[in-house]
Every structure is written in C-alpha cells, then in structure tokens.
Design brief:
Blueprint: E1 6-12, H1 29-48, E2 54-58, H2 61-67, E3 75-77, H3 96-103, E4 110-114, E5 118-120, H4 126-134, E6 138-141, H5 143-150, H6 152-163, E7 172-179, H7 181-192, H8 195-200, H9 210-222, E8 228-229, E9 236-238, E10 259-261, H10 266-270, H11 277-298, H12 302-317
Parallel strand pairs: 1-2, 1-4, 2-3, 6-8, 9-10
Antiparallel strand pairs: 4-7, 5-10, 6-7
Helix pairs in contact: 3-7, 7-9
Length: about 325
C-alpha cells in the first residue's frame, strides 16, 4: 500500500548551454541529463518497493521523455524564471531554489527534496517515521565532510560575507531536505534574501552550488527554529568511492541508512537495475573492489583523460 505520508521530489534541469556535472566523465548535455534521469529511475524503483513515490521536477519534460522513453514515474514541468549566471559551477543545481519555492506551495503532507544519485537501501527507519509523523524539519549536516576540504575559517568567512553577520562552519548537504510545506516556504524566504548577492559575486565564494546559499539559509533558520540532522536519524548517508579528504567510514557503516548518496558513482547507479534493496550493497561492494583495482592500475592516465574530456566539453559548449 502506498505511503501517503511522504512524497519525494528530485530536480532534473535541462540547460542548453551549461554542463553541470564535473565528474563521472560526462562531456555532453544529452549524456548528462540521461545519466541523471537513469539514476532517478533507479531511485524511483527502489522507493517503489516501500510504497514511496518519487516525482521528477524539470523544465523540459518532453526532452526527458525522448532520452528515456520507458521512464514511467511522475514528472512535473515548471517554468523556471531565475537568472543563474553563465559560467557558474553546478549551474543546474541552483534551480533547486525554485523547486524549494514550489514545494513551499504544496497544500499539505510531508515532503522531501533529494538528489537523483541516491539509492534507497532500506525501509523507512523508526526515527524517520517519527519525524514524518511529527512533521519535523530535517536537513543533512555534512560539516565534518566539508571542513577538511575547505577549512573552517574559509567556510565561516564565506558565510559571514553572504549573511552579513557572525556565522559558524555548519554546512548543509544539498542532497536531502524534508519537512512540511512550511519548512520549504520559510527556507525559500531565507534563500530569497541571499541568492542575489551570491549570484552577483559568485566567483568570490570558495564553493559554487546550491549548498553555499542553502547552508547560510539553514543557519539563519536554526537561530529561531528547530531543524534536526537527518544523518543522525539514519535517514541519509553520503559515501565517496574516490578517496575524500575527510575521514570516511567504510560503506558497511551506512548499511542501516534509509538512503545512500553516491555522488561519484552515477554511472554505476544508472546501470544497477535496483529492484531488490537488500542486494544493492552486496553489488556495490564488488564494484568498489573493481574500481579500486582499476584506479590502482590506470591512475597515472586519469588526469590526462579528464583534461581531454574537459577540452572536448569546452569546445562543444563554447
């Protein structure tokens, strides 16, 4: 029976002149969008096992249909009106701001915004069920993952520049937000106070993407409202199959999570055919072994391959 208490949404924005993936060896807009949509298909199928529906939000549903004709899950088309500056990294991710605005207008219920390169690997845990029942506001705190890369002083300085006030190093992952429509509505208001200043001077910030503005907006909301960390409730985890700068637990440590975000493994997700949740981690561990072996053998060639692909993409989009 379908669980009507939670509805999940993901953004797939079609950008004609911008390429938004900066890894996974993707060099064209068509390949990029197909990869995202195939990931969404796997997420929708894994959620379907537990009666949860994933809805794709896009600006071009016809184009998505031509790329993956057998995509049968709900798609909502929105007319995005925001001006996102050309040349900004992770261009399409910034349209999450408009999705947040849209979700704030949903009549009722409990809703979540997730990235498409996520897999549902378990049933909804008790902590998340309680959060849904209580309509708890949730975000995913990834401060410990980001600080070793960017540095706490750099993060604090950037956020204080954007907020015009004292800030902490808190960093919110853009892959998961959940709550009642009021959460998204309040978040939309805070984002609206920040995004124009960010867009006007985006090159001055150490991070480009929705997380820069989202982290500042979440911090401002937390000054007056209670927002809980979905990671602590075992709702979501993020795992990198490439060596991150932060200390990362083995993938087995995430086996009890409801969903697992795999930002460096979109091609694997897209080809996984995840119909049985309990089989995914077993397949993923085999893949990790193979990937580690491949990188050990061919790592000297990888920078050259990436440079060639970047050159190719630059010429296609210039």
């Amino acid at each position: 029976m379908q669980d009507e208490q939670i509805k999940l949404f993901t953004l797939i924005h079609v950008a004609d002149q911008e390429i938004s993936i900066h890894n996974n060896f993707v060099t064209s807009m068509e390949a990029q969008i197909r990869l995202y949509l195939l990931c969404a298909k796997q997420l929708a199928e894994s959620l379907e096992e537990i009666g949860v529906v994933l809805t794709v939000i896009t600006n071009n549903s016809t184009y998505l249909k031509t790329l993956v004709p057998d995509y049968t899950y709900p798609v909502v088309q929105l007319s995005f009106s925001s001006h996102v500056p050309t040349g900004i990294r992770f261009f399409s991710a910034h349209y999450k701001f408009e999705v947040i605005h849209y979700l704030g207008s949903v009549a009722d219920g409990y809703i979540g915004l997730v990235d498409s390169d996520i897999v549902c690997i378990n049933a909804i845990p008790s902590g998340f069920k309680e959060a849904i029942e209580k309509k708890t506001w949730l975000y995913y705190d990834i401060t410990e993952q980001v600080v070793p890369n960017m540095g706490s002083e750099v993060i604090i300085s950037a956020k204080e520049r954007l907020l015009g006030a004292k800030a902490s190093a808190l960093w919110a992952g853009g892959e998961f937000l959940a709550g009642p429509p009021a959460f998204f509505s309040d978040l939309d208001i805070e984002i609206g106070r920040l995004k124009d200043a960010y867009f006007a001077d985006f090159r001055a910030y150490p991070h480009q993407g929705d997380e820069m503005v989202l982290s500042a907006a979440i911090e401002r909301l937390k000054l007056r409202l209670e927002i809980e960390d979905a990671g602590k409730l075992r709702v979501i985890g993020r795992f990198w199959s490439v060596s991150p700068l932060h200390q990362q637990q083995p993938v087995e440590a995430f086996a009890d999570r409801f969903m697992l975000h795999l930002p460096s493994d979109k091609p694997f997700i897209a080809k996984s055919n995840i119909r049985r949740q309990n089989r995914f981690l077993k397949r993923y561990k085999v893949y990790l072994i193979r990937k580690k072996l491949f990188r050990a053998l061919f790592s000297p060639l990888i920078p050259y391959a990436k440079s060639l692909l970047k050159w190719s993409a630059k010429n296609k989009f210039s």
